[in-house]
Every structure is written in structure tokens, then in C-alpha cells.
Amino acid sequence: MHKRSGFTLIESIIVTAVIGVLVAITVPAIQQGRTRAREIECVVKLKNVGLAATNYDSGGRILPGVERIANASHESYGIGWFYILPFLEQRPLYDSALTTNGVYDISLIRHKEIKALRCWFDDTDQGTGVVKDDLGSTYGASSVGINGLLLAVVDTGPDPRVIRPTRDPSDTISKLLHIEGQSNTILVTEKVAVCGSDTLQGGSAWAYHELSDFAVPLYAVIGLPWGPNNGIGPNTTFQALKKWDAECNPLLASTRHQAGIPVCWADGHVSIVNLNIAAGVWWACMTIDGGEVVNLE
């Protein structure tokens, strides 16, 4: 009697169909898992940035300012992000800015991309890792923006302006937020590397420090007035960009996450702020002396 071997055509079709179904179920799940892992990575990085800022502040020092500054003896200069580098495990990069004259020069390292300040979803720089100002100068791209109201003295009234780019030596986070509360105030959030429109181009570069009317809004800071435009007030909120080249306002917080924007609060905890945040609530979470108490959890 002849013994059959192998599969029949019908059996092969059934096996192929089953494999196809399993692939259709498994591949999206794997992709979703990878996406979720990358989202978590971005949130963890943001928390680390917030902790670096608060650790700098906790030793009796205030958060570094938003413009190029020098220490008390004028031995070094740079913007706020420069001084936080050692707290982001970037001590070698920080030390590489030391010149033969014994001073630190941020211009020597400003073109460097710092992975700790980048989110995988921020593809607005198209993978280059750098952004350029209107003069063609190159800066390391950033995906974060720190709350400028904690770094600088800002007039948020009818004539908004930066009064002083640094705070008084006694202005620690705990002192500034003794009314608002640290859990109610945004410390760091996302701000994409390249952001602009037909009328205003900018983005986020960690080493950019110009605040003049003729500068480009490329600083890795939010909550600051800028020239004839304005990045402050109850009508400001964050932007969720659906495409890498979507039109956006470079003065505001921005993200490529579609569910909301990650935020590290001044007390160090992180959360995702929903896209449907009510008008005025985002600004209430930015201010340091408005007396508002909000809860977005």
C-alpha cells in the first residue's frame, strides 16, 4: 500500500493562512511595544533633565540663566544648559570647553548633539542632530525646553520683556515656588529641534543664548517674550505636531507625541499633559507667582 508523504495543497493553504494571521496579529503588537518603549525612553530622559536641573539648584545654587552668563569671578561663561552638563553625565563634554586661558568657552562645543536632550520622536531635524541660525551657525539640536520663568526675571504684563536673564543668588526653586507649589509648576517639557512658519523660524538648540530682537528663537527655553512676538500669557499652550515639517510657533512648547506632551514638574515627577488641556491652565502651570493651584493628574 502506497504511504502518503508531505502536505496536500489544501493543508499547505491552511498552514499559510494560519501563519499569515499570526503575523498580522504579532507584528503590530511588536511595533506598538517598540513605540511604547521609545515613549518611555523620552519620558525618562525628560525626568533626568529635570533632576539634573534640581540637583544643580539644590546645592545652594540657583538655576543657571537663559542667556550667556559668567560666574562671580568671570572665570567661565555659557548659558544655563552648559552649567547643567555635568549633572547629565556630560562632564567630558563640559571639560572640553575649557580653553588654554583657563576659561570655559561654550562656542567650542555648541555644535555637539547631546543624546540626553533628544527624544526619538523628534524628527524635525531630519536626523542631522543639528540646527542652524539665520547666519548659518551650527548648534546641537535639542528636544527639550526649560521654563524660562524659573531662570530669568520676566515682566509678563502689557509690555512683556526679559528684565534680567538670571535670577538673584537666593532665588532657589523652593523659594520661588513657595506659593505655587513645586508639584504644580512646569520645570521642563518638550520643544522640538526645528519649528517655524512662513513668518517665524526657530526651534530648540541647547547652546543658543541670544535674546535680542534680532535673534532667532532657537533657545531651549519656553515661557519667554521675544521681540514683537510673544511666547507668554494665558493664550499660550503646547503644540502637538502631526508631521515633522508641520507649521508651528517656535516660542512655544512642542512635541511629536500624539497623545499629549511629557512634562517634568519642579518636584521631579513626570506626567503626560493631555491635548485637551483647558485654555489658561498650561500658563497657570508655567507661572511662579500667580497663586493658582492646578491638578492635571
Describe what this molecule looks like in 3D.
This protein is an alpha+beta fold and 297 residues long. It has one domain (9-286). The protein is 25% helix and 18% strand. The chain has helices at 9-58, 80-84, 91-95, 148-151, 173-176, 281-286; strands at residues 69-70, 76-78, 104-105, 130-132, 138-140, 144-147, 153-155, 161-164, 186-190, 194-196, 201-203, 221-222, 239-240, 254-255, 260-265, 270-274. The protein has a five-stranded mixed β-sheet. The longest helix has 50 residues, at 9-58.
Global structural class: alpha+beta
Mean pLDDT: 81
Major sheet description: 5 strands, mixed
Provide the β-strand percentage band. 15-25%
Report how far apart the termini are.
74 Å
Biggest sheet strand order reads 12-6-9-15-16
- Alpha carbon gyration radius: 23 Å
Order of SSEs, N→C? HEEHHEEEEHEEHEEEEEEEEH
- Assembly annotation: single chain
Number of strands: 16
- What overall form do the CA principal axes indicate? globular
Number of discrete domains:
1
- The level of helicity is 10-25%
Output the number of helix runs.
6
Stretches where pLDDT is under 50 for at least 5 consecutive residues are 71-76
How is this fold's topology laid out?
Blueprint: H1 9-58, E1 69-70, E2 76-78, H2 80-84, H3 91-95, E3 104-105, E4 130-132, E5 138-140, E6 144-147, H4 148-151, E7 153-155, E8 161-164, H5 173-176, E9 186-190, E10 194-196, E11 201-203, E12 221-222, E13 239-240, E14 254-255, E15 260-265, E16 270-274, H6 281-286
Parallel strand pairs: 2-3, 6-12, 13-14
Antiparallel strand pairs: 1-2, 4-5, 6-9, 7-8, 9-15, 10-11, 15-16
